[in-house]
Amino acid sequence: MATMKAVGRATSLFLNSSIPKPTPSPGQALVKIKAFGLNRMDLLQREGHYPVPPQAPKTLGVEFSGTIEDVPNTNCGFKKGDEVFGLAYGGAYAEYIVVNTKMLLHKPHHLSWEQAAGVPEVLPPSLPYQNPHTKGRQTWITATQALYLIGEFTKGKSVLWHAGASSVSIAGIQLSKIGGASSIYVTAGSDEKISFCINELGATAGYNYKTQNWSEEILKATDGKGVDIVIDFVGQNYFQGNLDVAAKDARIVTLGAMSGTKLPAGVDIGAFVRKRLRFEGSSLRSRDEEYQGRLRDKLEEYIEKFEDGTFKIYIDKVLPWEQIVEAHELMEKNTSKGKIICTIG
Hints:
Layout: E1 3-8, E2 14-20, E3 28-37, H1 40-46, E4 63-70, E5 83-87, E6 96-100, E7 104-106, H2 113-117, H3 140-150, E8 158-161, H4 167-178, E9 183-188, H5 191-200, E10 205-208, H6 214-221, E11 227-232, H7 236-245, E12 246-254, H8 271-274, E13 278-281, H9 289-300, H10 303-307, E14 315-320, H11 324-333, E15 339-343
């Protein structure tokens, strides 16, 4: 039996050289991985706090870049040797991965392996994890899903992105701007991150949740109107504030509950009726391949915007995969702006 190296035993994170090398079935491709991206859900899964889909392997990781080594169906648009990047249910912390070809994209020549591995996505954590350092850190597919499919964004609407310096919000701010948002607000945990969101990404204004009452400030900035779309990863602690800043007929999109899922006494839900609000939660990793494939097709439409510089991929740190423990420790510190990437070979 052929074997490969993979990051084994999520709680201790070490390279296991005895993991069986996967074999692709029709409709799948075997990819030799060059780089993979870290995501906040990896920390949760490592600690046993994440509901892993039944089809996912035990090995962590959902976004990657690499070259196709084998593809049984040659009529799928891919062939051996193609440079690709993509999204998987799991298994990207490894030398090889088997993935449905519907979730692969051809890697543009102008993107490095590291950049390509940071493009796809991972869904934000949907369960609370009582670690003060954990915040969302996701990417383009989740941002597209939240903004367009769930938030029903159209030109002229205003948007609030919580965790503004996280990878999903970095992508979302850029999507909102190019889509013609009337205003883009963000929250973050430091003035440095707020400055980054405004000066580098083009957000209208930002608020440090550690030193400011962000809901009051946004209402002041909008003359009491509020915002049309709220994208939240925090949950419990932001629930009332999100209701307060939501405009009439607004959409509140919840992708995580990092502060908890149980609401404190005194939460006033009257805004749901008074403002005709819609509150909707979502995840992506548990979605079927057809749904994920539709989002993959949307991502493909963005490729030329990465090439001409309209959309930018922000990578905070690149480490060899032998330093996977250090990479997880860096993510836990919550000081990065953009993706953390590990390379293989």
